[in-house]
Amino acid sequence: MFFVWLDMVYSSLFFFGKFTPLIDDRQGNIMPIIEVKNLKKYFPVTGGIFLRRRGWVYAVDDVSFTVNKGETLGIVGESGCGKTTLGRCIMGMYDFTHGEVVACNQSVSKMNLTQRKKLALGLQMIFQDPFESLDPRQTVGQSLEEKYLIHPRAGISFDSDIDKLMDQVGLLPDSLLKYPHEFSGGQRQRIGIARAVSMEPDIIICDEPVSALDVSVQSKILNLLLELQEKIGLTYIFISHDLSVVRHISDRIAVMYLGKIVEIADAQIIYDHALHPYTNALLSAIPVPDPELKKQRIILKGEVPSVENPPPGCRFNTRCGYAKDLCRKTEPKLFPNKNDSSHLTACHFFS
Length: 351
What we know:
- With 351 residues, the protein is α/β, with parallel strands linked by helices.
- The chain has one domain: 3-Layer(aba) Sandwich (Rossmann fold).
- 31% of the residues lie in helices and 24% in strands.
- The chain is built from eleven helices and 14 strands.
- The protein has an eight-stranded mixed sheet with strand order 8-9-10-5-11-12-14-13, with helices on both faces.
- A hairpin with a 4-residue loop joins strand 1 and strand 2.
- Helix 5 crosses helix 6 and helix 6 runs parallel beside helix 7.
- The longest helix is centred in the middle third of the chain and has 18 residues.
């Protein structure tokens, strides 16, 4: 747990920060607040007596997308598809193998340490397990005060800001004197949210923030995130495997499979007119509350291929009921739909 906390503090100290949306004077349009361009993250696989590299885990493989200020981009997919790795690469917790992350028209990888520290205020992260991300030896007050000590700001102190912060996330002031083990899961996640918004960021990466919580608590945390987004003007990258949760909070949705984005579009379009066979299979697995409404379930055959040895061509071809020889030989690229240029699909036959 200590190393998870240390990793979090290190990433907050040296990477990303306060973003200001750029405006294209010629068009009058707001430029994306963050751009991910051809991002790749490969982990080496070692073995033998001398631990020599014998392969790679292709966790994130050539992923590109943009996020506009004030919107929520949901990233969904099965466990092991690379969602969390993608989020941590954007956050700066992992050095990526290839590609770049651009913030405010600046390539973050080309920034020096001073620039990265200055930018560290604008991008924060909410972790999946709030207990693991909190130092068990520190009170809540000590954990929250730490960021104010690392990133001092003129006219803003922990003592002057803490009452407002606790009120924003729905926690009582006496919570500051307690330790993480004295709280419920939902309360601990509120502490994690408080720590993320304390620096008044522009972007928050939410890594499955409600997956470890009860359903009743999930709705409260999601409503809190939406409320903070409206009040502060936050931009979210929301990572989850739960499509019903993502639908509730997202403006656009990107679907990942085996390290790649296979479909990206507005949330309503994904749920009403999904094109990729994998996306439709995921949607068919969402439970229907009314038992009289029968829903045809799409059962995917076979196992998810190894990310160390992905299949050639389309990575979904081993489980797709529509796969042809073309799918097994040629990898499809993300192409816009002929009726909607914002709806991108990586499929030879459904695009």
